[in-house]
Amino acid sequence: MKKPARESLEREHRPEEISRRLDKPPKVQTLPDAILGGIDGCVTTFAVVSGAFGAGFSATVALVLGFANLLADGFSMAISNYESIQAQREYIDDIRESERHHIDMVPEGERDEIRQIFQRKGFDGETLERVVEVISQDREVWVDTMLTEEHGLQKMGLSPMRSALTTFVAFLIVGAMPLLPYAVPFLDTTRQFLASLLIAALMFFLIGMMKSVVYHRPVFQSGLRTLLMGGTAAGLAFLTGHLASIWFGVSV
User: Fold this and answer.
1) How many CB atoms lie within 10 A of CB 59?
2) Cβ proximity of 207 and 233 under 8 Å
3) Rounded Cα–Cα distance for residues 183 and 2 (Å)
4) Is the residue at 219 inside a domain?
């Protein structure tokens, strides 16, 4: 990751710039949901394509199974993501209400918790007592401090619907890519599979590259790692389809 120049950092840390940044509402991160949906969508559909090719099924069967899995699994994943984030929000709200109740019932005990938390950070004496006094004067600041420092939870709001929609859209868009060659009628089954393989590999690599750009990681390494993970899943699907066709005597 390239480090900013000193002049740039000094401009960003002027009092007015710091105030402006702190006044902004926290950004809701949707990229992890998009990456999750994209990778899983591509793995899902290409695994179906690989399994169908390994079993010797026709292009029509692969296309039908692929789109059926694309919609069903995409919806299922979006719902799962929604429920997961909603449960996380409810857990945070429950902890917040619990801390409010504790402050109302045993305020001195909660003040001592604040005192010990900041004592472990190196505060002591009058400075420590002043910190405790300032925090405990505002009930919501007090609750937020306990939420972050005692329970390790972030107070930033999460959007279950946004995450679910992002996951679903990314799943559909990226997951549909490996199916495109099977919609081309003049290609034989082998060429359709090879074209699907190349497209899936490209999708995996591009997703890995996108992660590297956003999170400032080595581009090639991130792309290759994502490609290897997706390729492993597709290889397992191909092997399973081929072995199943032999074990169960399926012939097309």
Assistant:
1) 21
2) no
3) 44
4) yes
